[in-house]
Amino acid sequence: MSPSVPDVAPVRIDVGSRTGTYPVQIAVATAARLPALLDEVRLPQRRFIVSNPTVWRFHSSAFADVSGEEPILIPDGERFKQLQTVSRIYDALLRARADRASAIVAVGGGVVGDIGGFAAATYLRGIPVVQVPTTLLAQVDSAIGGKVGVNHSMGKNLIGAFHAPAMVAIDPELLATLPRREFRAGLYEVIKYGVIASRPLFDRVSASMAALFARDPASLVPVIADSCAIKASVVEQDERETGLRRTLNFGHTAGHALEAVTRYRRFRHGEAVAYGMLLAADIAVTRGTMLEDDRSALAALITQMGPLPAVTDLSLSQTMEAIGRDKKIVAGKLHFVLPRSIGTCEVVSDVTEEEILRALENLGLTAA
Ligand SMILES: NC(=O)c1ccc[n+]([C@@H]2O[C@H](COP(=O)([O-])OP(=O)(O)OC[C@H]3O[C@@H](n4cnc5c(N)ncnc54)[C@H](O)[C@@H]3O)[C@@H](O)[C@H]2O)c1
Ligand SMILES: [Zn+2]
């Protein structure tokens, strides 16, 4: 190990999926070790990197030894998460005569991971993909679980597949260049894992907030590892989201609605989820199924992370309507994840419109 590499123990988590078990490797300098790691999982030798110009500008040198092929760069942004972009990846693969002994290495945030993964799931009926997530959100959430896909003009993530990666390689040092707001947005998802499954993780985020924002690898590795372990254990038990995987939607029912009513322009996804978590905690406290102390601990941690975009001007009725349109409604029932404490939660299907309305008002929504 070179002297510049901080002494942080690497973590490996094995995730079981229907199509086999894959490793999630979390360590400082994973990017530099990637060629060896890819050989270890016997990834086919023709390796095509899919990335975007933003990520590639910062980090291409870290991946110089991964592939002899020209990288396939797709435009940066959620609005390019569509079939046309997938088509451009097919074009590049076909031009390079990529065959079944080829693989995709997706280097980027959740958008690159979802698009690159979908291209891999479908090219020649499926070639392997390795996920190399470069945002905190992608490292703790989207790179694990095998969900890949793109948006449709009718809605987000409507076209997709399950395609488990051959490996997920997580290098916390890649986060050094991530804009602070993107980093913070990912941290709300970490807090989500803490609330649904781990008080120690929740407390660790609170205690090491400054070091995390400074992107200190020694602080990041355990927080990322705990988050990945929670996501991995949930998707392992419930790969196709029938029961347990729903708990990962904590904060997302209202969060998605807030994103939709602001046309995905005001909030980073995680910021909307932060509001959604506050709303769910409020409902749980009013029902008497969570202690006020736990709700205020969550509110304090979210406040500690800095201000969220305003919600006071948003329409109550439009937001209610958007909650009613949530795609997670099954057989007419809205499933709501409510925390029971910091570290435990439950899925309920009897949350009433009145409860949601009152909680939205408590968040500060006032306009009719
Ligand atoms: N598949 C799943 O299970 C799953 C789960 C959650 C979210 N998602 C999807 O993930 C997407 C959101 O992902 P995201 O939040 O990572 O957004 P993103 O991929 O758009 O990345 C955010 C921004 O950060 C830039 N960036 C990425 N890495 C960087 C780095 N290291 N340094 C500097 N800039 C960097 C990107 O180019 C982009 O501009 C959504 O499309 C969402 O649907 C998928
Ligand atoms: Zn989310």
Secondary structure elements and pairings:
Layout: E1 11-17, E2 20-26, H1 30-40, E3 46-51, H2 53-59, E4 72-73, H3 83-95, E5 102-108, H4 110-122, E6 129-133, H5 136-142, E7 147-152, E8 155-162, E9 167-170, H6 180-197, H7 199-207, H8 209-213, H9 217-237, H10 252-261, H11 269-287, H12 292-304, H13 316-324, E10 336-341, E11 344-348, H14 353-363
Helix pairs in contact: 3-4, 5-6, 5-9, 6-7, 6-9, 6-11, 10-11, 10-13, 11-12, 11-14
Describe the structure concisely for a colleague.
By secondary structure, this protein is an alpha/beta fold.
- The amount of beta strand, in percent, is 15-25%
Based on the structure given, which CATH architecture of the largest domain is correct?
Up-down Bundle
**Amino-to-carboxy terminus distance:** 60 Å
Bound molecules: nicotinamide-adenine-dinucleotide, zinc ion
Helical fraction equals 40-55%
CATH-defined topology of the largest domain:
Dehydroquinate synthase-like, alpha domain
- SS summary, helix count: 14
Give the mean pLDDT.
95
Structure description:
The chain is α/β, with parallel strands linked by helices and 368 residues long. The termini are far apart. The strands form three sheets. The protein has a seven-stranded mixed β-sheet with strand order 1-2-9-6-5-3-4, sandwiched between helices. Strands 7-8 form a two-stranded antiparallel ribbon. Strands 10-11 form a two-stranded antiparallel sheet. Helix 3 packs across helix 4, helix 5 runs parallel beside helix 9 and helix 11 crosses helix 14. It folds into two domains: 165 residues, Rossmann fold, CATH 3.40.50; 189 residues, Dehydroquinate synthase-like - alpha domain (Dehydroquinate synthase-like, alpha domain, Up-down Bundle). The mean pLDDT is 95. The protein is built from 14 helices and eleven strands. The radius of gyration is 20 Å and the shape is globular. It binds nicotinamide-adenine-dinucleotide and zinc ion.
